[in-house]
User: Which sequence fits this backbone?
């Protein structure tokens, strides 16, 4: 009879009865970096097996947009929330975690009382620096999005990179080129991080700075750097080497073949799902 009448169950009403909505909110800061859609895909894959639906909450780094999604999480009685970046509304998220399980996938901080899968950006920066040092690169540049207090996790990769060069007595041989903080206040386009890498590299070239390698905060910035260098008739890697971080799909394209750091995205997505599901089951 239900099939004949094309009846659609009311998931909200069913959730009130079972105390479960089977909904998870996943917060991500942007869609222009393929790292986040890749991570989202794994999270959806793992949670779908357990009958959960995922609501994508893309904030575009806008605090007010993030707050609206937090309101939605409470309004829809979501079973759990996974953050793929450090929340802007930390007090609100901590308060929410008392009633709804929350898992953070970002840099670990002792000041954040949330279940966290640490990305360890400092070690990423260290690995990038060590790779370049082993290749003999003494004069290097690091290009990055804005290094602001709100986006402090970006500085962790820079810190790990610089510390390794300092350890080798090459502190003055590292150029840090960061985008202006106004970038984070504008709605990103699909090529925002690529364009940022391109523009910062062009600025380095115009300033006639001395470097034999460029490290990008992520793969998209590194790809932008490659295009800027080749457009300026600088051969990669013969004249200048380029390395990224995140091991996104584009880095493996044979024509590009970008050296990068693998984040084991599938494992991080799986672990985030395991934690959130266990916490949901404990609350039943």
Assistant:
């Amino acid at each position: 009879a239900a099939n004949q009448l094309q009846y659609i169950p009311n998931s909200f009403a069913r959730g009130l009865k079972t105390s479960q909505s089977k909904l998870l909110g996943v917060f991500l800061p942007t869609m222009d970096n393929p790292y986040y859609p890749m991570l989202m895909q794994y999270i959806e894959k793992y949670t779908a097996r357990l009958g959960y639906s995922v609501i994508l909450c893309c904030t575009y780094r806008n605090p007010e947009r993030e707050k609206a999604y937090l309101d939605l999480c409470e309004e829809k009685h979501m079973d759990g929330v996974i953050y793929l970046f450090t929340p802007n509304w930390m007090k609100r998220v901590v308060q929410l975690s008392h009633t709804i399980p929350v898992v953070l996938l970002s840099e670990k901080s002792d000041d954040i009382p949330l279940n966290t899968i640490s990305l360890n950006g400092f070690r990423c920066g260290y690995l990038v620096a060590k790779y370049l040092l082993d290749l003999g690169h003494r004069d290097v540049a690091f290009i990055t999005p804005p290094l602001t207090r709100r986006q402090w996790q970006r500085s962790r990769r820079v810190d790990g990179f610089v510390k390794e060069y300092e350890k080798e007595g090459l502190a003055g041989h590292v150029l840090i080129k960061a985008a202006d903080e106004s970038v984070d206040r504008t709605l990103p386009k699909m090529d925002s991080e690529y364009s940022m890498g391109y523009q910062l590299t062009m600025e380095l070239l115009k300033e006639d700075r001395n470097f034999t390698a460029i490290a990008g905060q992520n793969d998209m910035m590194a790809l932008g750097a490659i295009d800027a260098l080749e457009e300026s008739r600088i051969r990669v890697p013969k004249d200048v080497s380029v390395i990224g971080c995140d091991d996104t799909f584009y880095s493996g394209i044979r024509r590009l073949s970008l050296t990068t750091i693998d984040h084991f995205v599938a494992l991080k997505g799986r672990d985030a799902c395991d934690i959130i599901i266990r916490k949901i089951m404990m609350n039943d």
Q: What stands out?
A: The longest strand covers residues 23-28. Strands lie at 23-28, 53-58, 80-83, 102-106, 115-118, 140-144, 174-178, 213-216, 241-243. DSSP finds nine helices and nine strands in the chain. The mean pLDDT is 89.
